[in-house]
Amino acid sequence: MEIVAMNEELKPIAHHFLDVLDGCVVEEDILSNASVIIDQKQIVGMMSYEAFGCIGLIRYFIFQKSLNPSLTIELLNHVIQHAKLHHIEQLIGIVSSEEVEEVFILLGFHELSKENVYIDETIFSHTAYKDSKIYGIQL
Length: 139
Known about the structure:
This protein has helices at 11-19, 28-31, 69-85, 98-106, and strands spanning 2-5, 35-39, 42-52, 55-63, 90-95, 110-112, 118-119, 122-123, 133-138. 28% of the residues lie in helices and 35% in strands.
């Protein structure tokens, strides 16, 4: 297995990987920020972010449950290196389940206050995500 940055050759494979997810709309600018885990020419894990100034919002964080946790950490480190090149200072993620929360904690993220967080100019506590938690990591 190897971890690589998204490239034009991988985009059709990434689209296929994301198409199997119910309701997933692929956004090309977010896909271009992705790092992927490749196993036998198939994507088995992906993490990307959407840039908002110096903050990156984790998007497309998908991986097979059978992956070794160390690979997930390597995937995050790969994304961090890409984010730093694009002047991202912090990555944040919206976490809606305990299982995902455990993964973010394993990756070194810490819970953040939702108090001053807005989504599309709406305060977080007034969105559909209001019961979720926000985790972040400084780069």
